[in-house]
Amino acid sequence: MIQKIPVAILGATGTVGQKFVRLLANHPWLEIKALAASASSAGRVYGDVVKWRETVALPAGVAGMVVRECAPPLSGQIVFSALDADVAGPIEQEFARSGAYVVTNTRTHRMDRDVPLLIPEVNASHLALIDGQRKGRGWAGAILANPNCSTAALALALAPLHQAFGLTRLFVSTMQAVSGAGYPGVASLDILGNVIPHIAGEEEKIERESRKILGTWQHDEVLPAEFAVSAHTNRVAVVDGHMMTVSAGFSRRVSIEDAVRALREFRPPASIVELPSTPSPCVEVDGRTDRPQPRLDIDRGGGMAVTVGRLRPCPILDLRLVLLGHNTVRGAAGQGIQIGELLVAEGRVKREGGGERPS
Ligand SMILES: NC(=O)c1ccc[n+]([C@@H]2O[C@H](COP(=O)([O-])OP(=O)(O)OC[C@H]3O[C@@H](n4cnc5c(N)ncnc54)[C@H](OP(=O)(O)O)[C@@H]3O)[C@@H](O)[C@H]2O)c1
Fold this sequence. Notes:
Bound molecules: NADP nicotinamide-adenine-dinucleotide phosphate
Number of strands: 16
Structural class: alpha/beta
Order of helices and strands: EHEHHEEHEHHEHEHEHEEEEEHHEHEEH
Distance between the termini: 11 Å
Strand order of the largest sheet: 3-2-1-4-5-6
Largest sheet: 6 strands, parallel
Number of helices: 13
Strand content: 15-25%
Radius of gyration: 20 Å
């Protein structure tokens, strides 16, 4: 039997933490060895303390695990962090210093120059930033960041168009699900039958992070892409799935047919296609006039595919489209796990005792 790689989850009781637990339950390469959360949960049995909100039964293997405090050492060379952003920084640094590869979902380190902000299908080469990070900070491990949940879907859908036509201007308006605010999140009396036209810090994150992700790797650093971004973010009464309407301008002429072809023909590098969490295709184009819709399309590719629809000319910029991504899968736990898989595939994390990577 093949030995799996042990992993730990920080913030395991929260919305994103629960998604990690669900997605890792039967993972072919990785195995949960430790769960950690705040001091009020630590020392208690996970099944007793978690307010389980996933639509499958709590996996038997983790239900009886005792929740630990968020401090090293915890079993696991890979540590997935789904911590509240207000507390994540020093905790994640402590784990990286002590030798763990911390894949973080929080905003804290995303824009650090030496921290890769990864969408494996788009910019796996940026992983090399951790070499300078480890050297510069004197850490035995490293921090790798997952983008903000709306940026993850947006940048993945735009990557094929940026590569083919050179993005120059981007206007995006989001309709973001309530699960994006964690649990219990937005009060039901605030969101039912309503739209809230503000999500703190979200517009700035989309503007900064999309340029870093689509940036170029040059002389051991990432040069941000130079397109201008105008983002409007809204919270809507949807459970899961961030939808976005986009207008985009490009440096080269782009027809609708060319854009559809670029999206449909987009293929990540072979080494990324082979990762267990990489969906095929990672960008789906839906030609129906009323799609994508969160309730109908959110689980495409196991929640890892981004769906693009309504491609049409834009009278102000060049192209208009609608896109949809799963905020806790592509935008958090699913892609976090895919980054963990990338560490294994690149040989940066090995099974105890060495040997081949699990297949
Ligand atoms: N929800 C999304 O769609 C989404 C998507 C992308 C990124 N993110 C980011 O992912 C992170 C987690 O989000 P979430 O939605 O899962 O939030 P959440 O449901 O509020 O969960 C927060 C987690 O952090 C733990 N925590 C809180 N204070 C702590 C402390 N002082 N020490 C240790 N652990 C502590 C909580 O443990 P207790 O249960 O013990 O309090 C809980 O496990 C945030 O940084 C968020 O911005 C969220």
